[in-house]
Amino acid sequence: MKLVSYKANDEEQGAIEIGGKLIPLLALNDHFHFHYETTVFSLLEKGQYESLKNWYVHEGKEALANPHLPFLEEWVPAPLYRHPRKIWGIGMNYRKGDEDQFASNTVAPVSFMKPDTSLIGPEDLIQIPPLSKNTTAEAELALVIGKTCKEVSEADALDYVAGVAAALDMTEADIHAENLRYLTRAKSFNTFFSFGSELVSLDEYPCLDDIYVTTLQNGEEQHTNRIGAMRYNLAYIVSFHSEVMTLLPGDILLTGTPGAVVLRDGAVVACRISGFSKQLENRAINKEVHA
């Protein structure tokens, strides 16, 4: 199942995407006499996501083949939601070249937090901080937690994941270079986390290892890699964080990037992920250039 957040007048609403069109959750409720929450975050928070997905898998695909339903063929994308309880990420997670894919991971991953004040959505502007000469952007696959969990095993971890989303993680790299302990500060500027509009459930993928994540700049592919090249796999990332903290529905875990690009005024950076209908794009702006 693919859920999408879109802008409807002054509100942001949820919908199911099927065949390149949207059926809003409001319309779904009206037509089928359901009582689902109508935003993606409230659907997760109220524990209704699994029920909706089960309906979609067993009945919904066929039911939504009805061409007379009130589908949207055009829409303005919005971030899946704007105020998750947590945004955590890990770094340096993709192997490159001839690195041993079977090497054991004996060191815990580098991790960091981002505040929800850093969150923007598709097509919003990334604001390069004043005097910054080295703001970078990285395409990442984001895990979205679907059910509360604590101290979950790797074997069970993905059962608590609602799906995956596209993300762009920005860093003021000069601050980080000044001192490696400044990583979270370097990643916490306003507009430094772009969150995509699509939530794709894991059952949409025959093999998670074959998902490709790509960083693009100005329409050109800069870095790409597959999930199977990760040092710390998706299940490990969930389990690792749950050892320390309770993970809640809607929490976001960033899983690393195949590579970063340096942003300049006017540059368009994008995240492309296999199985998504659209890539996540944002333009960077340096207000000093336009002062």
UniProtKB/TrEMBL annotation:
Query: What keywords would UniProt list here?
Result: Metal-binding
- Quick check: keyword Metal-binding in the entry? yes
Question: Which superkingdom?
Answer: Bacteria
InterPro entries, A to Z: Fumarylacetoacetase-like_C, Fumarylacetoacetase_C_sf
Q: Name one GO molecular function term.
A: metal ion binding
Q: Name one Pfam family in it.
A: FAA_hydrolase
Asked whether the UniProt record includes Mitochondrion among its keywords, one would answer no
Name of the protein in its database record: Fumarylacetoacetase-like C-terminal domain-containing protein
Source organism per entry reads Alkalicoccobacillus plakortidis
Q: What is the lineage of its organism?
A: Bacteria, Bacillati, Bacillota, Bacilli, Bacillales
